[in-house]
């Protein structure tokens, strides 16, 4: 369901109004999907001129009888193997619909392609071979249609010519598949007997299926409804980015549901901060006055400066999504390695991402099996329900309340490995919106910078333990202070004794540690001070988060002293303990320190003195606009 | 929202995802109708100015009208334009048929530009309806270290979640108008009043439906001398869009071989 099509849409450029529906054809391998597609294209007059003749000629050249499925097998690689390997999109028309057909393959290997295709569909055709009946892949695809939220499913029983157009055989299959789908909460819109090869039941009720009184395939497609508009649901605007290309601070994203207009009171989740929409920005004409509804990609400005980041969800106060660190989801799994309890995963919910741990697995089954046995882990192409614990709070809805925000995908090693629906959000606590109205300082920033002779900044020293961060930080602090500036040292270890005493050294705790350091440092910087942060901060992602928080005030310095020298120095004895195995989660002797890629400055303390290193930092702060060029000689003014 | 609004919103979403999730991207500007629509969409996504370079991999064999268009609108649209040359034809696989070989030269030029700038994402204006092999594409499509496309091992992509982590040294192709059709492009060009190269409009009973290198692109018979007339023509025609592109007709698999090697 990539695109929502309202019935008022003009699908053709010449002004006629025809609803567009996207459909997918699924089912067991070799039950005749490609044949049905080829036949449909022919029956609806949708083939490009000469295509049929060209393929007939190619078949003759290869000494093979022509088959309708050749139409789709445009790729040489496919013809060689005889299986459709990926989704193709083909357009044709019925009486009152423009149909976009996503051909989904049936080979079990390619379930990920079936999901890629079916996830964009408004409706589906599930095909079953009359001779073979309901097979494992038929059931699996039925289950996935349910998980993907495809509600309109027409079933076709193909190859009726192979069972002598037996009404009894048709009824058996029809009953079996209807029971299976009903069990999943999917009600078939029609069950149609056809022979895709000969054309019976596709566009015409031929004499051979005279006993059948329902719609043909073309008629069934003609009755599909475009996806339901999402404007009637509560507002959900997931934030994709914050842009500051000019003096506007634009919060950009796509409205997934509901609508908004300038002047609306909104709440930013999961933090629960409240603001008002000042303008809705656009281009080439801006701002726009009208109400913006679901499906629109928009940009808004707010009436106050709040910290917002990618992944936050903007909603109306009173109908905000739930904030949670724990949720239950029903998922399908596509990765080679089964998903097991305790696995570390990355969860994406819209633009929001969070690391997470699988804390429980239930109902792990092969949806293709008739009577399912429950497994401990969710194997490839299987489904299950999982409880996950997230390292960062996210804002989400159960899918029954919002089909767009109530779904998530799971990534393993940077690749999408599964996905599913949010069943429930733990604790059910609806975060109380916090009406934060920041109190502005009585002082203007130019008053402060006139006194300190510098702008506010966050100087972030990252590097291995014992690389010299704290020593440099202290030297810089002294130097800036001597020159009349206002430096404040924030040492990672020192803050762990107080503000961060609830945090350990797990990856999520380290992230939170860095976030708090960055927030405090940014607050100081906004008030004109130079916050000097000395923290190992090994994760690139965490430092990127710090940079996002501090924004243009951020100056990253990589203290790149070679690892051997750091270990040799070892003033706190940490390396020694870690080598002896007495210090778990110690950064330095493993390979877990991720070097910065675009630090403002790199300093190796093994090749220069502390004073020289401080000079370099001072120089960098001058060239990047933090320190004003001419440092006032305080003594001269006395 | 009408049909074009929906297409636009989806493309803007894709542009913003690419900009947020990749480090260094560029838009491949072929000067044709599709990439002009892409630039327009990018300016909508980013409120006026495209915040990454427009890369023109220049074969040196485009029509003079195309170069004039590039030089004029590159300035007017305030693009960060990078023009990169292609290697001489001798450097290209001699077993390919002539037109495919010529197009493969562009692929080489593209690889050189990639090596020069280190882009991790290239935005390309291909559409699913153009050509059968393009229908197989993902919106975020990983390319191997050699710029090649592995059709058999494409990651799943659903609910607008894209695989945005190419392996070190490899890059992603991003396709913001993959879901558009040729008629959509023209209808949108008209609605938004986006400038076009006049070669698309019929003169003396012929017009170009698709613009490539001068020596391997032919006009098709047409009397459509305005965008409205083009739209009427597209309603009726059953001739494929790339009919005028010589390379599509050389052998059954020439196009596919090119795509696997990294051609757009």
Automatic annotation (TrEMBL), chain A:
Pathway: Sulfur metabolism; hydrogen sulfide biosynthesis; sulfite from sulfate: step 2/3. The keyword Aminoacyl-tRNA synthetase does not apply. Sulfate-activating enzymes, NodP and NodQ, may be physically associated. Belongs to the APS kinase family. In the N-terminal section; belongs to the TRAFAC class translation factor GTPase superfamily. Classic translation factor GTPase family. CysN/NodQ subfamily. It comes from the Bacteria. This is Adenylyl-sulfate kinase. Its EC number is 2.7.1.25. APS kinase catalyzes the synthesis of activated sulfate. One of its GO terms (molecular function) is adenylylsulfate kinase activity. Residues 18-230 form the Tr-type G domain. Coiled coil: none annotated. The active site is at residue 537. It comes from Bradyrhizobium diversitatis. InterPro entries: APS, APS_kinase_dom, CysN_NoDQ_III, G_TR_CS, GTP-eEF1A_C, P-loop_NTPase, SO4_adenylTrfase_lsu, T_Tr_GTP-bd_dom. It is an enzyme of class 2 (transferase). PROSITE patterns: G_TR_1, G_TR_2. ATP binds at residues 463-470. The keyword Phosphoprotein applies.
Automatic annotation (TrEMBL), chain B:
Residues 25-218 form the Phosphoadenosine phosphosulphate reductase domain. It catalyses: sulfate + ATP + H(+) = adenosine 5'-phosphosulfate + diphosphate. GO terms for molecular function: nucleotidyltransferase activity. Keywords: ATP-binding, Nucleotide-binding, Nucleotidyltransferase, Transferase. Its EC number is 2.7.7.4. InterPro entries: PAPS_reduct_dom, Rossmann-like_a/b/a_fold, SO4_adenylTrfase_ssu, Sulfate_adenylyltrnsfr_sub2. The keyword GTP-binding does not apply. The keyword ATP-binding applies. Belongs to the PAPS reductase family. CysD subfamily. This is Sulfate adenylyltransferase subunit 2.
